[in-house]
Amino acid sequence: MRRDSRLSGVLHVLLHMAEFEGAVTSERLASVMDTNPVVVRRLMGGLRDLGLVASEKGHGGGWTLNCDLDRVSLRDVYVALGSPEILTMGHRNEEPTCLVEQAVNAALGTAFEDAERLLLERLGEVTLARLSADFHARMAKRGLCSQEPEPDVA
């Protein structure tokens, strides 16, 4: 089963961007993410459309944060990604004629709805600033400074 890791990836990119002075190229972000610059550009498109990041072409160009980390929740970023499916589980048949399967669908449907609602609620409670503060606390615990992050602090 394939997992959709775009939200995790975009949050990773945004936190790295918060550490850089000025614009950051897709190539630099791709290096941090150990991926291809095309993947970074694809991920950033929805964020740019919602005004969370900005991009500039040409020499000295790249991506910049265009938002206040205190005002952007993980749910906002999830929406900027197009609100991808949260659960990969689903009903065997969406409109069953079998009464047993109807009972199963009703029970599972309620559980799926509850799980999605809870996750979206929790994502709405966490801001990018909170993630950044957690990152900085982890850096301080290791005795590192955070001017420009290493490719990835493991």
UniProtKB/TrEMBL annotation:
It holds the Pfam family Rrf2. Gene3D superfamilies: Winged helix-like DNA-binding domain superfamily/Winged helix DNA-binding domain (1.10.10.10). PROSITE patterns: HTH_RRF2_2. InterPro entries: Tscrpt_reg_Rrf2 (IPR000944), WH-like_DNA-bd_sf (IPR036388), WH_DNA-bd_sf (IPR036390). This is Rrf2 family transcriptional regulator. The lineage of its organism: Bacteria, Pseudomonadati, Pseudomonadota, Alphaproteobacteria, Hyphomicrobiales.
